[in-house]
Amino acid sequence: MSDPTNRGPLTRLVAERPRLMATPALIARMRAVLKEHRTKEWSGKVAEQADHLLTLPPLSPTKVHDPIEFASAPPSRSLQPDTSSGASATTLDLARCFVLRIQTLGIVWFLTGEERYRDRAIKELLAMCAFPDWRGDEFLVTAETVFGAAIGYDWFFRALSDIDRQAVARAILTKGVRPGLNEFAADPPARWTTQPTNWNLVCNGALMIAALSVAEVDWSIAGQIFDLCRLSISTGFEAYQPDGGWAEGPGYWHYGTQYAVYLVDSLTTALGDDLGLGGSKGFGNTGLFRLHAASPSGRLFNFGDSEDKHSGGYWLFWFAKRYHHPVDAWIERQNGKAHPGKVHPMDLLWFDPDARRASSDHLRPGHAFLGIDVAMLRGDWNNPRATYLASRAEPTMPAATRIMISGASCSMPMACAGRSISARTTTICVTISIRRRAHGTIGPVRSDTIPSLSTDRASRLRVGLSSSIKSSSPLYPGSSLI
After folding, report:
1. pLDDT digit string (tens) for 107-125?
2. Residue ranges of E strands in 326-427
3. Does residue 310 sit in the same domain as residue 374?
């Protein structure tokens, strides 16, 4: 065991285990929350998933997909390329399956105290640590795997034998942390170390959590990776500035923000201090991006290379509690209503039944995210067939704007590549041309181009679209829709 002297924040690690997110106090609180009816329903769904996992073999490099495994808690990013029964899992699929298995079995053990769940989780942990390596086609494989191993080592620490603890810690350090150091040491360093992308949050977050998990085993290597990642991840958190938008779209917002939350929460529980990351400008308000990026039908505004579907956002319960934003919890509750039976084990840990309830009564129908040149507008918060329009000025296409239109009652003809497009019964996403105007105003979206809307609603949509695009697109002053 190396000397912890001068290892910075890691010297403040609490000795109590578990210390990563699921502390003894929070586990006791989670058990008490079971008295709330909805949460009892959720815990039953998570327990069903844990019971199903008991029937499956531990993960192996030759795993094939089981469609039931992700039935109630699909991953934040789609598995590749096919999750049908019998399809081979990619290395990234394996990493995500591993994380979800550890979380599911661990949370159910915390709730019930039944050792069969704990023992099976330990089997999963040891099986993954026995893999020859945690490499894949991309470093995300290493990152997600080391995260799963880190929380497994911490959550089941007192149930592991000394020999098993050594095996798991050795795997975390040699198969996860050292490859991470190599990413920083490369010439040039890996792109994720310097770019404000989802990769930055996922990779840095996972490696810092690994350091928090096994620091006592090797203070030197844990301190090295922690310090490097701490400097690097500031770039990722800066991407939320100034108002919580995410330039890669809502799909990758889900993925990156998931690990940002894992990290901020783990720092808080393990060190008593999130090192200022939780106070990063825009981060506390980023739930608004998720709120407005979802159309009334539930499909997401898929600009960038984001998908138009999602698997929920259980970390929104964490945002609601941490920043006292009831609307964030409302978003996830609405998702639960739209997708009954979908629940993630972390919902149980972060849900706060005592939080003030929110509704759509005072929600604004539109929002402009200035940092990413995106504006979203809707006709109603409670009607799944309401009109929805979202736009983004494409940074790589100076004469184009990405538009999403949806709503069964919406009819907005416009020219695109020489064709007339009308959104009447479906959701479409198109890239349309914009033209320069001589003066600094947005060209009108006329009420008579929206015949199926009331005059008042059309007028408000016209004004909202004009002001939102104008205020959110400083790179494109004086532009109008063709």
Report:
1. 999 999 999 999 999 999 9
2. 366-369, 374-378, 388-393, 400-406, 414-416, 419-421
3. no
